[in-house]
């Protein structure tokens, strides 16, 4: 009870700040799922009966998180750990990218992260977090009640280590487990299996190589963790380094970039020109400052919240919309005619880009919460995606406008992996780029991603502009305007 009261008091100071910390978000979800089962057991006697019934009613009304939510929070933490190269022990101490927060994980919290990773067949993170649970358990009070034992940790560690290819260590851990519990049926079976595996491996190693060595050489090539269908190892590395801020454009790329006021010969902008900052010359990517105001942002957020649904992607083969693990966010669509503020933003988008908005898609509002991200992708449809935008009859997405509606404490950058460019979220700014060459072919250099949100909550809105009605606003060139990057 004291632990719950302490956490409640800390969170009540600033709820938004509290839950924007991914460690707090994970621990809160854990307290309301696996930990709550233990609380219910403690309160199941007559003294706690009335209170338990009261809380149970709240659970149904307030929609407490489920086991699926807990798994999602755990996966989000693993994603942050990988993308930002976070040390396991530092993360358990409450450090996020070198910044110390008050929250620290217990051995129980670490064990649950390892267990969730195991459920997802993620044996790499299972080993990391089970080892951390073992370390923390060794210096926590002996009389502290835990829902697991050292033997439980060893069993998870042994099998996960085996799945990673280290049979010798798996056997060693299994032997240690059997010293604690000699009659452990599963461990005894695994011990026999691991010993058999080691004998077979030993026999294979006796085959001499061409160089006369006794063992076959092991490959030192890195193993890509990402799905090959999404992006390859080289791009994955570039994506992570860009998110970490360790990969930047060359001086040659930065030298010609300028900031200036623009009016696009629009009468309204003649009076109040837009502030434009160039992020890339080729492909053309710019940032408009003061493109959306705080009052507008609050109205858009208020309209979007009740409509939020899990964001979807378009299946390249069927053209159907579906959810995917490489895009984790919530989104809602707002029509232009719904509110004068949205109409103003759409008109402002036309003024600053010089493109016609009648063929543009409605304003999509997106929120990225704990670990929210969108892996490298194209906004335009490639030629093989014949069903893309089929019902719109407005052609391909010629350009993208991305409004940033919040600052993000850590993470959340928009990164272009082909040109080593990262755009950091800044409330009120808008990024703009062309997805297509003037010929209508897709520009592969515009492949981009939304880095995971490390701390905070990221709000953005998109305006995707299509080809129809842009014939005289962005006409084709007489000469080809692209080479190797054409489809």
UniProtKB/TrEMBL annotation:
Keywords: Dioxygenase, Endoplasmic reticulum, Glycoprotein, Iron, Metal-binding, Oxidoreductase, Vitamin C. Its cofactor is L-ascorbate. It comes from the Eukaryota. It is an enzyme of class 1 (oxidoreductase). Its main location: endoplasmic reticulum. It is found in: Endoplasmic reticulum lumen. SUPFAM superfamilies: TPR-like. The keyword Iron applies. Its EC number is 1.14.11.2. Residues 359-467 form the Fe2OG dioxygenase domain. Gene3D superfamilies: 6.10.140.1460, q2cbj1_9rhob like domain, Tetratricopeptide repeat domain. GO terms for cellular component: endoplasmic reticulum lumen. GO terms for molecular function: iron ion binding; L-ascorbic acid binding; procollagen-proline 4-dioxygenase activity. Catalyzes the post-translational formation of 4-hydroxyproline in -Xaa-Pro-Gly- sequences in collagens and other proteins. Belongs to the P4HA family. This is procollagen-proline 4-dioxygenase. It comes from Musca domestica.
